[in-house]
Design goal:
alpha/beta, FAD/NAD(P)-binding domain, Enolase-like, domain 1, seven-stranded mixed beta sheet, 22 strands, flavoprotein, Pyr_OxRdtase_I_AS, NAD
Length: about 475
């Protein structure tokens, strides 16, 4: 029987990063993945393919709507070749997952393809296509991730009533895509198909889209999406989703309790994701799950069984690839006797719509709830030369800082390239910068990053220069 210092079940961003860090720290490491490709949800059916389709559809929209204004004329009709678009996306996924295979072999990590299930606290059975194998490990990390969740009355048929996984490989552009859930995944994929020509209706239970983020971001994104002619049905409680031939009929109650019926040809159910522990046989090792089916862990991500840890989407916290990665690194370093730390308040959140939305730290709503005395500095993208040059004028940067100490408590932004710009907010907050610290740093001109400096100036005695 093969023996390891550490065995990791699941090869998503949590699992594969944990494996690399364990190997770097000198541990004999194995990783077990039930699918034939490594990389988990993120690389196969999540972050990477969705961004590939967002990029392709963005190019198409630019070509149709904006090229002429830029002085670029394309003779003849500009058409979408969806098959090619999906094939390019798959090419990106294949290249990326192969990259993980390379990293596993470079770091001398043994990869097992099969379903991993606990035999006991130190043994994992691997059910492969061609039989069973058991390995022994001193420590085991559960990194089995998550799966799309649904509502109890919805029957996901994977043809017309679909999850994000199917939405990433449709064979036709929907005529009318109904998206249930106005969160990150629904809005990103909704925008892909809107750009490609579908009518898109979002049905959201809460009174705003991207409910977890700062209210100002929800408001601005809703404004832009309405301009893009995405229909937002807020405060709508979906009560049935039925398929009739090629039609999908969604019924919901609006705020006043009136029934609203939407008829489309596809319905994307994006109401969140649930932790995935099926087939893991956690009971055999005595590992406890919490009341929401997540693996229960302490602040060191250790389960109730001392040599078993869990990371990523399968434990509490934001379901984000970079959160899973940080946790993978943390557990590896704990196993090596180090004392790492994650500040969960500083895990940024990003929505890759256009304009992009990104945030780190506390929202204004949270600060109010916590009774913190804060000040706000906000700067609109449209006041930037860079934004006008590329015609990306929607959005703003908003900085929240402590009223007395000027320490930055939250950075919230919507606009072009905010997914990348938020790193400045994270860096500043990681070093406990004040708004004035940011405002005194030189920001290259012309860039979108100047909005961060200007928002910091606005938070520092209302000193923005360009507005
Ligand atoms: C459409 C979409 C877009 C997204 N976009 C982003 C984004 O832009 N940015 C971001 O940060 N996050 C994004 N996410 C979320 C992100 O994908 C997850 O947070 C991340 O993948 C979680 O990583 P993980 O390692 O915990 O689990 P996963 O990536 O889910 O990986 C778990 C792996 O474990 C395997 N596994 C499960 N059980 C077993 C078993 N018993 N034996 C062997 N293998 C097993 C699974 O097959 C899977 O490969 C997106 C998700 C979706 C669906």
């Amino acid at each position: 029987m093969n023996q390891y210092d550490v065995a990791i079940i699941g090869s998503g961003p949590g699992g594969y990063v944990a494996a690399i860090r364990c190997a770097q720290l000198g541990m004999k490491t194995a990783i077990i993945e039930k699918y034939s490709t490594l990389g988990g949800t993120c690389l196969n059916v999540g972050c990477i393919p969705s961004k590939a389709l967002l990029d392709s559809s963005h190019h198409y929209e630019d070509a149709v709507k904006h090229f002429e204004e830029h002085g670029i004329e394309i003779p003849g009709e500009i058409k979408v070749n969806l098959e090619q678009m999906i094939a390019r996306k798959q090419g990106v996924v294949d290249q990326t997952t192969k990259g993980i295979e390379f990293l596993m072999s470079k770091n001398k990590i043994d990869v097992y393809q099969g379903v991993g299930s606990f035999k006991d606290a130190t043994h994992v059975n691997i059910t492969k296509e061609d039989g069973e194998e058991t390995i022994e490990a001193k420590n085991i990390i559960i990194a089995t991730g998550s799966k799309p969740s649904s509502l109890p009355f919805i029957n996901i048929d994977k043809e017309r009533i679909i999850t994000s996984t199917e939405a990433l490989k449709l064979k036709e552009i929907p005529k009318h895509l109904i998206v249930i859930g106005g969160g990150v995944i629904g809005l990103e994929l909704g925008q892909v198909y809107k750009r490609l020509g579908a009518e898109v209706s979002v049905v959201e239970f809460m009174d705003r889209i991207i409910p977890g983020m700062d209210g100002a971001l929800s408001k601005e994104l809703a404004k832009v999406m309405k301009k893009q002619k995405v229909k937002l049905n807020l405060s709508h409680k979906v009560k049935s989703v039925e398929r009739k031939g090629d039609e999908v009929i969604v019924k919901a109650d609006d705020k006043k309790g009136n029934e609203v019926t939407l008829t489309g040809d596809y319905c994307l159910v994006s109401v969140g994701r649930k932790p995935y522990t099926e087939g893991l046989n956690a009971e055999a090792a005595g590992v406890k799950l919490d009341d929401r089916g997540r693996v229960e862990v302490n602040e060191h991500l250790q389960t109730n069984v001392s040599n078993i840890y869990a990371i990523g989407d399968v434990v509490k916290g934001a379901m984000l690839a970079h959160k899973a990665e940080e946790e993978g690194t943390l557990v590896a370093e704990i196993l090596a006797g180090q004392k790492p730390h994650i500040d969960y308040n500083l895990i940024p959140g990003v929505v890759y719509t256009w304009p992009e939305v990104a945030a780190v730290g506390k929202t204004e709503e949270q600060l109010k709830e916590e009774g913190v005395d804060y000040k706000v500095g906000q700067f609109p993208m449209r006041a930037l030369g860079r934004a006008r040059a590329s015609m990306d004028i929607d959005g703003f940067v908003k900085i929240l800082a402590d009223k007395d100490t000027d320490e930055v408590l939250g950075v919230h932004m919507i606009g072009a390239r905010c997914a990348d710009l938020i790193a400045e907010g994270v860096t500043a907050m990681e070093f406990r910068a004040s708004a004035e610290d940011i405002s005194r740093m030189s920001h290259a001109h012309p860039t979108f990053a100047e909005a961060v400096k200007e928002a910091a100036l606005a938070a520092t005695d209302d000193r923005a220069l360009h507005i």
